[in-house]
Amino acid sequence: MNSNFSNIIEDVLKECKISQYKIIETGTVSCEMFFIKKALDLSRGKDVTHYTVTVYKDFEDNGKKYKGSSLVKIHPTMNRDEIKSAILDAALACNFIKNEYYEINVKNIKKKYPCQSNFKENDICHWMGDMSRALYKNDNKEKGWINSSEIFLNKTYTRIITSNGVDEYFEGYDAMIEFVTNWKEKEEIELYKSIKFSDFDENLISNASDEMLYLSEQRAKAYGSLNSGNYDVIFTGSPVETLLSYYYDKAKAESVYNGTSSLKLGDNVQGDNVTGDKISIILDPELKGSTLSTPCDSDGVLLKKTCLYESGILKSYIGDIRHSYYLGVEPTGNIMNYVVSPGSQSYNDLKNGKYVELTAFSDFQMDPITGDFGGEIRLGWYHDGNSTTPITGGSVSGNMKDFHSNMILSSEVQQINNFKGPKALKIFNVSIAGK
Predict the structure, then answer these.
(1) Which residues pair with 302 in a beta bridge?
(2) Burial of 75 from C-beta contacts in 10 A (0-12 / 13-18 / 19+)
């Protein structure tokens, strides 16, 4: 951490008579490794520091109050005159940014937060070997293999300084592994996987590669697409997180203020006639394993566990200082981890009767404004009541508003970085476009 440079920036801000400001200093030390099959192809690292300064200015125009703000990046190689010039340009730009007025009421917090990750127990380069061994642990199949992989580990720190007496500092780690698995039957296919985490967990990594090798085998054996029609569908894996992110996004104070969400506190997001599982969500800023866990947000707001939904009822907005002020509610701060309560039935119980299970897509998307979702199917299974067949091709589409009153969540849970919730989600009479 280069505290001296942040202090120089703060001195220049005061010299320029800037009364409202925020300085964010971030530093990253990283290791990166790239493999072709099991052979190391390239390794590298970096050590970088970034500074961003936000300048605020209160002013009136035609009797209405505004808070202008302008962000500028300050490079560590800039001298004092260059810093001053950049800050004065930002201050001028504030006059043209007509944000509705709000108060920044986070004041006089001076704190250094402890790091929670087990990566802190050793040098980051030490962990690269552990992660690569875990990834390739189950790469021992006759017809399938990990074709390539990229492993990243960052040690980061963040310091937030404001004109209101805030000086907060915290460290963290974020790791990402991207890899491609191949499987060869009559033809050769490949699937891509990315996992993110902030704690070293050998089983998390080895299970991910093992699962992808299995899914690659199933994809290679898939016979084709279904006939077009409506089916009961079980989503598993990352599509579950994509679907349930709809509720997280609808609860953002910014979305409500901008009119892209009409939810009010006390509303039932699923409606009044819910026959399936009701949605309960907790915001957890300290979710273990998430790369987005943080003790405070970029405004310095101290984060704490918050009930977002209870049995479908909206209990709180996810709000930064600005948009919470507009809505007249206490800011939660930007908490990016969310935990969805498990459902009423086991994964096996969901697989009764005829159903389609979908787990891999070429691109599965959710529109947080409309609730529309869809994607091209790369791998799924069709169960006709007696036998199960792997399928590929075609697409699924729908709108969450049509299904969330009768949606069944599994009792088993999974974690995908900042999301922790049901492993599976079942909805009924869903449109699939196929043959």
Answers:
(1) 296
(2) exposed
